[in-house]
């Protein structure tokens, strides 16, 4: 199962294709009877969710069985909260991928499944409700005689969950929250914006950092890191970095082997400095490319609208930060800040990335599912429209909305106004400040509390 150094990336994590997936079979110890059983291990990659390790253990001696799913992915900079209004059977059939750190709340019932109380799983909304009702019913049998008042409250919750499952309750809301930022809930009307689900990012508190294994304080004596944090560079340091690519070693987020990260500070004309970072692990094949603005959060948010109708528009440079939403009004499409991540590319490159992600997601989650034929058909039509944009057969507006103000689209007529480019600044809402972690940030008089 081990991957030799320099092996191809796809040898480790395979694409989710049932016709080509290979399962590793390993003889391993049974924790129930102490004899040897069999573990089947599958390493696969799911679009929008990256890599997963799926394992199944079976002991022929005591018949003990165990199945689990573990995300083999990095912890995101922020947690994710998804609020879903359940209106019809389509919502109950949504695919859900959770991690060990996912909490699930039903606000109308004041009920919560806390993090660390269940293993990672691939299921549906209905599957979660069914499993929860079964577990609560078993627990209720145990405490029915000893604690009747608690059992009575559990009965209310059980009946409420059954009502949600049977669609007899008036539009209940389920909230899925994950401190690692790696939860997934499918969108049945993809690629259009989800009308019944709201997705937002949040800044983890110290307790959540500790829960997922992040140290509260960074180790400043780590010998693997050979450069200083960006905030400590002086002007001469940055000037030197503009002339060269800086390379440093750090543990791989996937396999923890030491791998190389290349970093380059570059100036975007008429915008600001950005930091481009690329990491490649030769041990497990993990790769990532990130673009970070070098100037922090701007005083105001930014909305950029560019009219795309000619080849020169497709060749415009574009910086989409990791806090930026993407809208295409002519397609009734919106991609949140979590989609496509931060990247510096061209408009054509951005549309190509969007095309590939939507195509991969449709193939992974909806192919072979008769109930999802409508989603596949809509996706095919949408992908054809994206191709029409790339060939200039369909003029559209590309709108970037970035509360942090760190996104950019190249002007073709600098320093004069570009007739196809509109830039507007706006004041952030309290909710946007909260998502950026600004509400709890003290910038005046902080030294008095030291």
Features:
zinc ion binding, alpha+beta, five-stranded mixed sheet, ZPR1_A/B_dom, 450 residues, five-stranded antiparallel sheet
The fraction of residues assigned to DSSP E strands is: 25-35%
- Give a count of the beta strands, DSSP E runs of length 2 or more: 25
Shape: globular
Radius of gyration using CA atoms only: 24 Å
Distance between the termini: 51 Å
* Helix amount: 10-25%
What characterizes the major β-sheet? 5 strands, mixed
Mean pLDDT score: 79
Question: What count of helical segments does DSSP give?
Answer: 9
Point out poorly predicted stretches. 1-19, 216-241
Given helix and strand content, the structural type is alpha+beta
Keywords: Metal-binding, Zinc, Zinc-finger
Protein name: Zinc finger ZPR1-type domain-containing protein
Pfam families: jr-ZPR1, Zn_ribbon_ZPR1
InterPro entries: Znf_ZPR1, ZPR1, ZPR1_A/B_dom, ZPR1_jr_dom, ZPR1_Znf1/2
């Amino acid at each position: 199962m081990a991957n030799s150094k320099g092996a191809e990336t796809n040898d480790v994590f395979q694409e989710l294709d049932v016709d080509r997936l290979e399962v590793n079979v390993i003889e391993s110890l049974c924790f129930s009877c102490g004899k040897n059983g069999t573990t089947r291990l599958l390493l696969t990659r799911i679009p929008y969710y990256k890599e997963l390790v799926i394992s199944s253990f079976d002991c022929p001696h005591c018949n003990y069985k165990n199945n689990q799913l573990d995300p083999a992915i990095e912890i995101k900079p922020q947690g994710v909260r998804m609020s879903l209004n359940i209106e019809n059977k389509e919502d109950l059939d949504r695919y859900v991928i959770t991690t060990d750190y996912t909490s699930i709340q039903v606000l109308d019932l004041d009920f919560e499944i806390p993090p660390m109380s269940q293993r990672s799983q691939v299921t549906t909304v209905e599957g979660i409700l069914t499993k929860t009702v079964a577990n609560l019913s078993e627990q209720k049998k145990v405490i029915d005689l000893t604690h009747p008042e608690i059992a009575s409250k559990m009965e209310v919750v059980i009946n409420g969950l059954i009502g949600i499952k049977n669609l007899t309750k008036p539009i209940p809301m389920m909230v899925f929250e994950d401190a690692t930022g790696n939860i997934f809930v499918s969108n049945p009307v993809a690629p259009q914006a989800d009308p019944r689900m709201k997705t937002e990012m949040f800044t983890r508190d110290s307790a959540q950092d500790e829960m997922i294994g992040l140290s509260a304080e960074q180790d400043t004596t780590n010998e693997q890191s050979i450069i200083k944090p960006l905030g400590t560079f002086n002007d001469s340091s940055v000037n030197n970095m503009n002339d060269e690519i800086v390379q440093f070693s750090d543990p791989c987020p996937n396999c923890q082997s030491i791998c190389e990260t290349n970093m380059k500070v570059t100036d975007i004309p008429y915008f600001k400095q950005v930091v481009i970072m690329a990491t490649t692990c030769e041990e497990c094949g993990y790769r990532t490319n990130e673009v970070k603005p070098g100037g922090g959060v701007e005083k105001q948010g930014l909305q950029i609208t560019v009219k795309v109708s000619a080849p020169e528009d497709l060749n415009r440079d574009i910086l989409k930060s990791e806090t930026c939403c993407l809208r295409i009004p002519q397609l009734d499409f919106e991609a949140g800040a979590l989609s496509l991540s931060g990247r510096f590319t061209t408009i054509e490159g951005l549309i190509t990335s969007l095309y590939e992600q939507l195509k991969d997601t449709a193939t992974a989650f909806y192919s072979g599912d008769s109930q999802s034929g409508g989603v596949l058909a809509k996706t095919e039509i949408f992908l054809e429209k994206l191709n029409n944009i790339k060939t200039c057969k369909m003029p559209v507006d590309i709108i970037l909305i970035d509360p942090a103000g760190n996104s950019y689209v190249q002007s073709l007529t600098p320093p004069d106004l570009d007739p196809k480019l509109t830039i507007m600044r706006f004041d952030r809402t309290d909710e946007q400040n909260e998502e950026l972690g600004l509400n709890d940030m003290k910038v005046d008089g902080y030294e008095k509390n030291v």
